[in-house]
Amino acid sequence: MSELLKNAGLSTRAVHAGEGVDPATGAAAVPIYQTAPFGFPNAKALEDAFLKPKEGDYIYSRMGNPTVRALENKVTALEGAQDSVAAASGMAAISTTMFTLLGPGARLVAYRDLYGGTSGFFRRVLEPWGVEVVWVDVGAETGDGADLKAALGDGAGVLYLETPTNPTLKVVDIEAAAGLGRTAGAAIVADSTFATPVLQSPLELGADLVIHSLTKYLGGHGDTTGGLVAGSEDTIKEIRARLVDLGGIMDPLAAFLIMRGVKTVKVRVLQTAENAMAIARHLEAHSRIRRVNYPGLESSPYHETAAGQMRAFGGMLSFEVDAELEDVRKVVDAFRMITIIPSLGSVDTTLLLPAVSSHYKLSKAEREAMGIPDGLIRLSVGIEDISDILEDLDYGLSVLD
Questions:
Q1: Of 239, 262, 285, which residue is a domain's last?
Q2: Catalytic annotation present for 329
Q3: What's the pTM?
């Protein structure tokens, strides 16, 4: 990255980092290098690429691809990292990172409030593999941090956190957690998918690695999948090697689509955050809503922590409808513009019922302990006009009258 871009604002980096005129063709946009192998002019060139590889050497797209590399360089610049590696999905990025940092007999300390796919991977794959998984609650890192210290014990391989959390929008104090984790010798891994580099910078707050589901806000249009992990050059080199072994690589077309989305990430994310704040306040005053989870609300127990580490409060919120599941389904079905989508972070406003989708494998008691009752609706706020979103919410809730 040039010195100019190092000192540039986030939107400037989002547009220009990783890009430039293609030296082979003069293409102004990064080309989609839709190829599996790359050719060599002679045997020595092939040998050098394998034995003495340098930046810009490409052999086989499982091992590296120019379009994918351009995306990695762009997000590296946004996160203020030394390097990053992209994968086929957010879970591919998470699983490859964990397989790199952990092994049988290692200890993983993780917050209970995680995306269901992440916690499921920890329970169904890492634990049977021999990794000890110790769970802590959000807030264990604050105060004297006694609960987190106890979980870390005399050492841990990884401290894994997600903030804000999915779907309850709890906020982990990254700096406090990182300090305690580092003392225990743990690598601090932060999933920052909900916040994006627009709203928070986990590496600046002490995390060693930051993970994104690129499918969500960074891609931003719900048309492709991808994941990425960013951090130090040495650690990313190790994760990249494991990714090559496991094969969960990103496709160049997906990289192209996500890179195009990243260019507008700041304007999109800030608009969704503005809309989400208005929606949260509106719902908080609604007679049929029991509670609203949004760290931007002064009533949120996580407001102070979020205000200290986030630049805005994001486009995700969740709210509990004062009704049984059968009637909550009627509310959801009554919305005319807001659609039911098992994803988030796109330009359109969408919703999910976590109890019967993303967290359905947990028991009802486990879900409720995490703050996920049957009536909880997760809302991914889009960039539509706020008056239209509010009108649709009120229309759907009116079926309860």
A1: 262
A2: no
A3: 0.96
